[in-house]
Amino acid sequence: MLSESRINTYHQFFSDHSDQEIYGIYLWNMSLCGAFYPLLQTAEIALRNTINNVALEHYGEDWHTKIVHSEYNGLSKNSPATKLKNAFKDAIRKVIKDENEVRAKNNLEPHPLGYKPNFNKIVSNTNFVTWEYVLHPLFFRVSNPNYLWPQKIKRAFKNRPYRSPKDTLTLLYNLVSEIRPFRNRLSHHEPLWKGVTTRTEADALQYLNKKIDVIEKLIHIISSEKNKYLEVHGLIRKTRLMASKETLDTYRYRTQSATLSLKHKNKVRRFLSYVHDNDKPVLFSHGGRAFQISPA
């Protein structure tokens, strides 16, 4: 039921696998997407809100039309400032289209030309790349208080890792630039481990865990409280467990299960200690039924 081109992507990377194992890996990737989603959503919403809040303070509503910036290599078409304005225009069109569809269902006339939607709705309909544009050094100048950065760096990013505002902005721009294509792959249900450096299975798992590190770092810079929320609910741990060889082996049916008899308490105790100490999910069987146990 999968297209040949989609499943071939998996076969090319996992070349020594049967069709059954490949389908298991396909399901593993779906579960990976589900585990990564709340992390990426948290990062995106936190980034969007913190930048929008300080921009509103600095320029007022419709700040995307007022934000001060430098020239971009003498060009305007490919300038992040131009792309930022276009991103907001796209968001405005989307909001109006969605609202007009609702109005049509309620037998109401569409909004008139020149209608301006609620600004909060516009912001919530922007794409992730919009906020990457705002972090560009084009909007940074120490000697001019009208620029957004560095004036609002401290207020927007409370856990900034560097005293230097420029170094902090550069790091943030790089983090978001790394996360964005990964997020797009998730949105299109592509294999999440695809990357320039991923050649082997070990590379793929390392790549996935590095993405967790990057997302976690971005969220922490914005708000340590949001990071703690993810930790309390085990969402970061769950994603790391999903991005482990042990979980991959379970999905592709290559896990050897341990046989346990619950009458032997010492054996059970040793087994639970093993799960805890290794911090990995383990498959086991009891009474002819298979179970998987993961550390809390």
Summarize the structure.
By secondary structure, this protein is mostly helical. The chain is 59% helix and 4% strand. α2 packs antiparallel against α10 (235-242).
List its salient traits.
mainly alpha; 2 domains; three-stranded mixed beta sheet; 12 helices; elongated
Provide structural commentary:
- The chain contains twelve helices and three strands, in the order αααααααααααβαββ.
- The protein is mainly α and 296 residues long.
- The chain has two domains: 4-255, no CATH class; 256-296, no CATH class.
- A three-stranded mixed beta sheet has the order 1-2-3, with helices on one face.
- Helix 2 packs parallel to helix 8, helix 2 packs antiparallel against helix 10 (235-242) and helix 8 (201-222) packs across helix 9 (224-232).
- The radius of gyration is 24 Å and the shape is elongated.
- The two termini are 36 Å apart.
Distance between the termini: 36 Å
Mean pLDDT: 89
Describe the biggest sheet? 3 strands, mixed
Low-confidence stretches: none
Note the overall shape: elongated
Number of domains: 2
- Residue fraction in strands: under 5%
Can you write the helix and strand succession as a string?
HHHHHHHHHHHEHEE
Q: How many β-strand stretches? A: 3
Counting DSSP H or I runs of 4 or more residues, the number of helices is 12
Rg, nearest Å: 24 Å
The side-by-side strand order for the widest beta sheet comes to: 1-2-3
The helix-and-strand class reads: mainly alpha
**Portion in helices:** 55-70%
